[in-house]
Amino acid sequence: MLIAAFVAVELRRREPLLDMALFRRPLFLVATGGAVIVGTAVVGLLSYLPTLLQASYGLTALDTAWLFAVWAGMSFVTSLLSARVRLRTAERFALGLALSATGYLCLLSLATSLSLPLLVAGLAVSGTGSGLINSSISHLAIESVPAHRVSMGSGANNTARYIGSSLGAAGMAAAVAAFGLSQGTTVAVTAAILLTGLTAPAVLLVRA
After folding, report:
1. What is the span of the domain harbouring residue 182?
2. Where residue 172 sits, what CATH number does that domain have?
3. What is the pLDDT of residue 206?
4. Claim: this prediction has a pTM higher than 0.90
5. First-to-last CA distance in the chain?
């Protein structure tokens, strides 16, 4: 209801906070929808994963902090170096999503056992993907709108990412509560793999 009310109000304003006509642009839909996917499958999943590791395998908060420093470090370094990747913005975004999906495949092992090599590999690969995503998604949002709507495109993109983050964390918590730690982890990680893996080619198709 709140979304419907927001749309109704924005359609009547002379200077809307968000121009609904932008949703007729395929690239804007991809950039905004992609931000929701990133929030859900990347931020949401990895925000809950440390809690899962501590509850399932008895790791301390410091243990998980060191492990996730691998993901954060790879994301930071890749973001800084992404300008050297000779790909268009949409292609970098798609590659980041694909790498995230690949890294998550290693995290599926958490449903049955704790394999530190697989966990570290999964965090490193998905962290690399996250760095490419972060360095490209804002640019994609800007490219998807007219020059006089740049701030609007960026704002919509950031909002979509935070909406996805809240949905992702809540969804993973709900999956674990409904199916238990083992099966719930499998459901949540599999959903993240599908979301990121299927979105990657969609970005390329629309851009093409």
Report:
1. 30-207
2. 1.20.1250.20
3. 76
4. no
5. 35
